[in-house]
């Protein structure tokens, strides 16, 4: 089937590209239909299209496949769990053994002492929960004016209602209402703690519930924090009774070389959101780690104790939880978080080499096995990503004419160097065209 096979003409003579029934996500449909890469198989750091093309997965899908693709151990765990019990909900008196076990495991790994763990199905879910809980916290404290959620320019926090409203990428906010979907949000500039101080003074700490930030900004172009930045944000939060929500959906579970980026960058949030790496994408699962000062009032032994009115059928999904536990076993057994620290050095050296290409590469950034490359205006990151596909490599264009580098943790040094070499080749080929 070719693109033109799908073109129908309606009464107004505007052609409609019909295409498959599945509506592609985050896509300008006419640009992608007819040229979609249909992935149907994976092995380790590689995926295969239905046409048989083998691609090095330099982005680990959407930053999720940290242990690599199609791991047989996780498949076995999912199979066994589904044969025993697919899931049972965790509402009121009910719970299930796998969700409970995952809660214990995550609390033990958490950078927050004595965490409670809320489980759900993904990153955007977790942001919704964290923002709701932040507002609920202040309302319960009798400080109901503290509702505002501040986030950062270029931030990505998923695309549910809260994530859309606090998005720092303007195109993700547009079109859902004049101000935003959820009222009472505001954005501050990238890496500028003084601007946050000014914003807090202007809005008033009495109106602010939380600051949400990615430790290393991902979709905004891979922007690791400048030295001292996250500590400064944490201090602003502490000084003003503002909750700090760290969005570790990308960075959680080893991507920056520590289990959580909170450890690497020396900050302790009040709420920490996670998803992707908790299961390496083998099951949809995410959640929130919650500090004692937030959860304790909901655990007081009294008839007057409030309820946090949140939950979902798949919160604490047993199969997803079993898969997460097995994924964490593999991360630990195979020393993959430590391996990220080694790979970061390889990545940094390779990207420094690329950065030496004056004129074509504007900037490179690294924070763990997580890199960004900003290309000059005369090169388009989108075109380079397309060319890379032809060379057998996946990257992804991000904001600011940047390319995403986030392969699985299981890559060899040579595979990682080969990937950056391929990017260099793609750049050279474009320049010489
Ligand atoms: N937060 C961050 C930092 C993310 O990168 C993402 C997804 N890329 C999300 C939240 C949303 O996660 P999900 O796509 O699972 O809803």
TrEMBL record:
Entry annotated with the keyword NADP: no
CDD domains per UniProt: OAT_like (cd00610)
SUPFAM superfamilies, sorted: PLP-dependent transferases
InterPro entries: Aminotrans_3, Aminotrans_3_PPA_site, PyrdxlP-dep_Trfase, PyrdxlP-dep_Trfase_major, PyrdxlP-dep_Trfase_small
GO molecular function, one term: transaminase activity
Taxonomy, superkingdom: Bacteria
Gene3D superfamilies (UniProt xref): Aspartate Aminotransferase, domain 1, Type I PLP-dependent aspartate aminotransferase-like (Major domain)
Keyword field contains Transferase: yes
Keywords: Aminotransferase, Pyridoxal phosphate, Transferase
Pfam families, per the entry: Aminotran_3
Assigned protein family: Belongs to the class-III pyridoxal-phosphate-dependent aminotransferase family.
Name of the protein in question: Aminotransferase class III-fold pyridoxal phosphate-dependent enzyme
């Amino acid at each position: 089937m070719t693109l033109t096979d799908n073109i129908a003409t309606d009464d107004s003579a505007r052609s409609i590209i019909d295409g498959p029934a599945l509506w592609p996500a985050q896509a300008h449909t006419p640009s992608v239909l007819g040229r979609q890469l249909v992935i149907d198989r994976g092995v380790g750091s590689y995926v295969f299209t239905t046409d048989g093309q083998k691609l090095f997965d330099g982005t680990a899908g959407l930053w999720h496949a940290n242990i690599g693709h199609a791991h047989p151990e996780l498949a076995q765990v999912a199979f066994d769990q589904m044969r025993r019990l697919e899931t049972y909900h965790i509402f009121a008196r009910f719970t299930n053994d796998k969700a409970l076990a995952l809660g214990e495991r995550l609390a033990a790994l958490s950078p927050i002492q004595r965490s409670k763990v809320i489980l759900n199905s993904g990153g955007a879910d977790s942001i919704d929960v964290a923002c709701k809980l932040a507002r609920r916290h202040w309302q319960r404290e009798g400080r109901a004016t503290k509702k505002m959620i501040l986030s950062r320019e270029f931030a990505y926090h998923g695309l549910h209602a809260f994530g859309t409203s606090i998005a720092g990428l303007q195109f993700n906010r547009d079109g859902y209402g004049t101000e935003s979907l959820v009222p009472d949000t505001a954005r501050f500039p990238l890496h500028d703690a003084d601007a946050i101080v000014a914003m807090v003074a202007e809005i008033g700490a009495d109106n602010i519930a939380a600051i949400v930030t990615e430790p290393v900004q991902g979709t905004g172009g891979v922007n690791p924090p400048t030295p001292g930045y996250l500590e400064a944000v944490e201090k602003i939060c502490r000084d003003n009774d503002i909750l700090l929500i760290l969005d570790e959906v990308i960075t959680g579970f080893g991507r920056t070389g520590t289990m959580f980026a909170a450890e690497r960058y020396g900050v302790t949030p009040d709420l920490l959101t996670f998803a992707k790496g908790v299961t390496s994408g083998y099951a949809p699962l995410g959640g929130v780690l919650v500090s004692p000062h937030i959860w304790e009032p909901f655990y007081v032994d009294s008839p007057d104790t409030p309820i946090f009115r949140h939950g979902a059928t798949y919160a604490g999904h047993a199969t997803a939880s079993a898969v997460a536990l097995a994924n964490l076993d593999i991360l630990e057994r195979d020393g993959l978080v430590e391996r990220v620290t080694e790979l970061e050095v390889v990545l940094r050296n390779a990207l420094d080499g690329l950065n030496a290409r004056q004129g074509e590469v504007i900037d490179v950034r690294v924070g763990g096995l997580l890199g960004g490359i900003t290309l000059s205006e005369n090169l388009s990151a989108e075109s380079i990503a397309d060319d890379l596909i032809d060379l057998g490599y996946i990257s992804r264009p991000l904001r600011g004419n940047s390319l995403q580098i986030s392969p699985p943790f299981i890559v060899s040094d040579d595979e990682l160097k080969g990937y950056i070499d391929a990017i260099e080749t793609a750049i050279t080929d474009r320049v010489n065209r």
